[in-house]
Amino acid sequence: MDNIKIPTHVGIILDGNGRWAKERGLKRTAGHLAGYKNLLKLSKYVLDKGTKYLSVFAFSTENFNRPQEEVDYLMDLFIKGFNEDRSYFKKENIRVVFSGRRNRLSDKVVAAMDKMEDETKDNTLGTLNICLNYGGRAEIVDAVNKIIKDNKKDITEEDFKKYLYNDLPDIDYMIRTSGELRISNFMLWQISYAELYFPKCYFPDFNEKEYDKALEEFTKRDRRFGGLNNHEQS
Asked: Which of helix, strand or coil describes residue 33?
């Protein structure tokens, strides 16, 4: 397809890692590892295409309710991955930020996140926003509490955005892999006018070719932001 439209901000719910592993006779943890490795490649591909912001749902506040063994594995994966892959993101000129609550995360996880943010803060290709211990409602509540603490009155939407975990533009295109048709508390403020896309493949299989298919679908969409297109105006 010619003249592919490139969204400024893409959000991806990284769903299906466990089912990907189960269908291959592997432990769920193997699916999480495959998903993480895919994220490294895919984030570079998305940002190389011209998208400036990529937000990914890596671990929700509710994910702490999963079996402890799985939670522990994911936390260790975050520590190891963030520490080992800082050089990758620096080399690829990708800025990494994190959205979510720091409580319930170990000191080692937080330290790895802080170091990643600090060492990539000057990178300019694009921003990878990793949502970790994140919930969309929690983000809005936390923003309101910051506003109350600052004793602010008559807040506009633009003012409110600055109190979210990161001051990012609205999401243009929200993708959830695995075929599940849910938003699952992901960036509720930011997806108000996002186009939604639900490919059936699990996230470890959501490769460059699948992302190109997603862009083709995005290009077909007629984004009106509540307005009317020409043939509906009569």
From this structure: helix
